[in-house]
């Protein structure tokens, strides 16, 4: 490892030696001195926020402002004004002219977190300022100039967002001049224990308690856990156990009370084993995440198939392909959780290597294949909607109606949560 990389890790308190993590950090150091836009991609809780900090600190802009904007947390109605400012009288309540972040950060860096959540009208303004450095305050027709470096981050599948018309393709390519991928914690098995020890030390100090330690079977246990909430989840787990656990030597059995191993199996909803109830709050948390992840996976698969069929038609599909697609859309499978009546089972129990297998109860269906219609925004099946609604209600109850906390727990942005609350009429 280069000295420079080690220095960065020390300075920012970054733990881990996994090659993909090192690559991400090295890439950040390399692009820092340029003004190139960077898009950081990775699941929630993987440490994406380190990247813009490193880039800013290692650039010639380091003495200028660094501004973090959480695009998912600002209401749609005010985001343009927050980013670009407004004129006095531009809208009700605009009693004075206000500078936006792009004006304030002139010469510096803006980190656009959860950039996939930006409303379309804001995307237009953002594209313009990225391409020409020009913007206008809301309610003004005077063009202003600014010189801002953008680092953006997302945990959503941008290709899907583009395909669904929620994100502009031109803006995506403009933001994504350089892409930095942050690996999920479950891919970095060797780093899990290191991170555990670092958090154990931090929290022991914070709460003036002896440090937690892991018995060998516990090390094995966390190294094989999927950590849907990644490092943030591990950190919260260690904090919670530091305060609660009397015995400072943790066994696998003890860990299983907090993070039950079986709950991260992808098809957990269908396995008899998982239907037994237990009262661990964390199990519920993980279930939410799994359901959301599963739904995303299914949607991705759905758009992929629909894209393939659209582009290629059905004529040159091999029999095997026809058979496969046909099976997804057989009526027998309509009770499934997935949109478009597809039902997917995962063969492998380890989510890191999950391969979807499409199961059908009948064999030959290609005759009705020509009748298949694929719509892009078909309403999700009822069972999925009910599940989702249920999970949202539970998360809101748990956090006493605090939407930011509930969104965090559900692993979705606040804006998505607001939308869902509206959609399901949960406002009261
Ligand atoms: N490699 C790491 N070493 C130490 N702490 C980390 C590491 N990666 C993430 N964290 C911590 O995990 C938490 C989540 O990181 P964050 O950057 O907010 O995730 P993201 O923005 O990807 O959701 C933060 O408290 C962060 O400090
Ligand atoms: Mg973040």
Could you please describe the fold and organization of this structure?
It comes from Chryseobacterium soldanellicola. There is one protein chain. With 428 residues, the chain is of the alpha/beta class. Helices cover 45% and strands 9% of the residues. It has three domains: 3-183, 3-Layer(aba) Sandwich (Rossmann fold); 187-263, Orthogonal Bundle (Helicase, Ruva Protein, domain 3), CATH 1.10.8.60; 282-423, no CATH class. β4 (134-136) and β5 form a beta hairpin. The chain starts with a helix and ends in a 5-residue tail after the last helix. The model is unreliable at 264-281 and 330-380 (pLDDT under 50).
Number of helices: 17
Bound compounds, each kind once, are: adenosine-5'-diphosphate, magnesium ion
Work out the count of structural domains: 3
Which structural category do the helix and sheet elements fall into? alpha/beta
> Could you name the CATH topology of the largest domain?
Rossmann fold
- Binned strand content: 5-15%
- Order of neighbouring strands in the sheet with most strands: 2-3-6-1-7
Which second-level CATH architecture of the largest domain applies? 3-Layer(aba) Sandwich
Q: What is the strand tally?
A: 11
Shape field: globular
* CA(first)-CA(last) distance: 55 Å
> What is the rounded Rg?
24 Å
Q: Which residues sit in consecutive blocks of at least 5 with pLDDT less than 50?
A: 264-281, 330-380
Provide mean pLDDT, rounded.
Answer: 81
Reading off the top of the CATH hierarchy, the class of the largest domain is best stated as: Alpha Beta
Largest sheet: 5 strands, parallel
What's the CATH H-level homologous superfamily of the largest domain?
Answer: P-loop containing nucleotide triphosphate hydrolases
Give the proportion of residues in helices. Answer: 40-55%
H/E element string?
HHEHEHHEHEEEHHEHEHHEHHHEEHHH
